[in-house]
């Protein structure tokens, strides 16, 4: 739902004709050895990437997680993610690991392009950075089902 809401907010922003700065999206889908899942749920079960897992790869989060070792896949993901964010802070522009279109009304169909960071499905010892402009429909159905079971407040209007 967050990803869907994020795309809806971006499209609303585009529709309001706020074009002062380019809009770029990314998706941190890297399922590494560490996750915040157990701190959010109390369970050691790993169900995939959750909100804030990207922070493990951006900042040292000891004592919750060990330092990410250089030469490991987690260490490589950390290097890539840190370089992505530092590049943005230094230049105000996104680090283009893959080619993608900046988000605009003309490029937002079906959704804006985003860079996706994840483990390669073909080689689990490599990181894949790809471009996507789709949404996981099964995930949308899942969150709609959760929304029907749990009394969830509607998100605030987009800023």
Which term fits the overall shape? Answer: globular
- Poorly predicted spans: 1-5
Structural class: alpha+beta
Report mean pLDDT, rounded to a whole number: 79
User: Can you give the helix content as a percent range?
Assistant: 25-40%
Strand order of the largest sheet: 1-2-3
Work out the helix count: 5
Strand content: 5-15%
Biggest β-sheet strands, sense, barrel: 3 strands, mixed
- Helix/strand order: HEHHHEEH
From the alpha carbons, calculate the radius of gyration and give it in angstroms.
17 Å
Number of strand segments = 3
Separation of the first and last Cα atoms: 17 Å
SSE topology:
Blueprint: H1 2-15, E1 25-28, H2 37-41, H3 53-58, H4 73-91, E2 114-119, E3 127-132, H5 137-149
Parallel strand pairs: 1-2
Antiparallel strand pairs: 2-3
Overview of this protein structure:
- There is one protein chain.
- The protein has 159 residues and is of the alpha+beta class.
- The chain is 36% helix and 10% strand.
- It has five helices and three strands; from the N terminus they run αβαααββα.
- It has a three-stranded mixed β-sheet with strand order 1-2-3.
- The N terminus is likely disordered.
């Amino acid at each position: 739902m967050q990803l869907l809401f994020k795309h809806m907010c971006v499209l609303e922003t585009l529709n309001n004709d706020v074009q002062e700065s380019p809009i770029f999206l990314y998706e941190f889908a890297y399922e590494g050895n560490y996750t915040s899942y157990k701190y959010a749920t109390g369970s050691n079960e790993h169900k995939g990437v959750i909100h804030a897992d990207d922070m493990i790869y951006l900042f040292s989060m000891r004592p919750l997680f060990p330092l990410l070792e250089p030469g490991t896949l987690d260490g490589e993901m950390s290097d890539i993610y840190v370089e992505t964010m530092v590049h943005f802070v230094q230049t105000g522009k996104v680090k283009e690991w893959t080619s993608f279109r900046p988000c605009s009304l003309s490029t937002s169909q079906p959704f804006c392009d985003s860079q996706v960071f994840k483990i390669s499905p073909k080689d689990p010892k490599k990181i894949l950075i790809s471009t996507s402009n789709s949404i996981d429909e099964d995930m949308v159905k899942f969150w709609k089902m959760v929304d029907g079971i749990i009394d969830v407040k509607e998100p605030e209007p987009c800023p």
